Amino acid sequence: MVPPARVRAIRTSLLRWYDAHEQPFPWRSARDPYAAMVAAVAAQQTQMARVLEIYDRWMAAFPTLPVLAQAGRDEVLRVWGRAGYPQRAAYLHQAAQHCVEEHGGALPPDPEALLALPGVGPFTAAIIRTFGFGEDAAAVDTNVVRVIGRVLFGDLQPARETPAAAVGAMAERLLPPGEAARWNPALMDYGALVCLPRPRCQACVLASVCAARPRFQAGETAEPVRAQGAWEGSDRQWRGRIMAHLRQRGPTTVSALMRHLRPGQERARVRGLLDGLQRDGLAWVRGARCGLGDPPAEDGPG
Ligand code: SF4
Predict the structure, then answer these.
(1) What would the pLDDT profile of 115-149 be if each residue is shown by its tens digit?
(2) 32-133 is a CATH 3.40.50.1480 domain
């Protein structure tokens, strides 16, 4: 149990810091649940500077949920472009179609209904509720895990060391009533700018209340968590190359794709990855032909 005075001190320090360092991202002030969803999905595994670029491009192409729902999957994937993890674009598209079919073309305010949408987990649902509907919901991303795990649990590597349920419960406890639209971005930005994997404790407004600070001060270090394995030759790299070619080229043949990719000994593996992209709704394969997104109507079943 964290004493109320400590909770107050953390809230006050962090909100004061936020007021001085607020980043004016458009989705934070838009009061648009759809804009909030796009930003939250784009933010997963992506640095904030790139999120803005993806967000602007996406909102210019698909300014509303119904516009997105009506777009073709290939167009959706082209607009997502090289932003990485294109499954996220497919999820946004599926979620939009679901909302048009089931919720009158708008995102539902109900948390359970939000969590039932494709690609919407607790973080995205909390962001939609906070910025879209003006509700209090604690958003927990990797930056928030790091700040809470260090300040309140004294762990140096919270992503590995602090139980997720404990972080979640503490995130709820810290959330100042009626302030989620300032509090959530304050915590997220603090983890992104100050309490970094290698923390900037000397410049930290939470240093006097942080349980990890004495450990860092004593010389302990936090080795960065390696989020991913090697990129070169990975499935992700091959999938990215397949997607890039299909985006640029449009419908083509599997053999032309292979000629372009030159997989050599990896041909069977790359062919399997193409099938995997089809299963994920990112590409289609019909006999000798393949392309981006859903198959053209004349290639569809029936
Ligand atoms: S004192 Fe260091 S570890 Fe603690 S919150 Fe600040 S930057 Fe993070």
Answers:
(1) 999 999 999 999 999 999 999 999 999 999 999 99
(2) no
Of 147, 196, 215, the one to substitute when testing ligand 1's pocket (max ligand atoms within 8 A of C-beta) is 147
**pLDDT band, very low/low/confident/very high, at 226 (cuts 50, 70, 90):** low
- Gap from CA of 3 to ligand 1 centroid (Å): 19
Q: How many CB atoms lie within 10 A of CB 301?
A: 5
- Residue 118: is it exposed, middle or buried by C-beta count within 10 angstroms (0-12/13-18/19+)? middle
Residue of higher predicted confidence among 230 and 91: 91
Question: How many Cα atoms occupy the beta-carbon half-sphere of 129 within 13 Å?
Answer: 23
Ligand 1 proximal residues by C-beta, below 6 Å: 147, 150-151, 194-195, 199-201, 204, 206-207, 210, 212-213, 216
Question: What is the pTM for the complete model shown?
Answer: 0.91
Atom of ligand 1 nearest to the CA of 205: 6
Length of the chain: 302
- State whether residue 285 is helix, strand or coil: strand
Q: Select 235-299's CATH number: 1.10.10.10, 3.30.1160.10, 1.10.357.140, 1.10.3720.10.
A: 1.10.10.10
Residue among 204, 215, 220 whose CB has most ligand 1 atoms within 8 A, to mutate: 204
Q: Is 284 helix (H, G, I), strand (E, B) or coil?
A: strand
- In terms of Cβ atoms closer than 10 Å to its own Cβ (0-12, 13-18, 19+), residue 260 is middle
Contact 73, 65 (CB under 8 A): no
Strand 283-286 and strand 252-253: pairing? Answer: unpaired
Q: Whose CA is nearest to atom 2 of ligand 1?
A: 201
Compute the distance between CA of residue 106 and CA of residue 121 in angstroms, rounded to an integer: 18
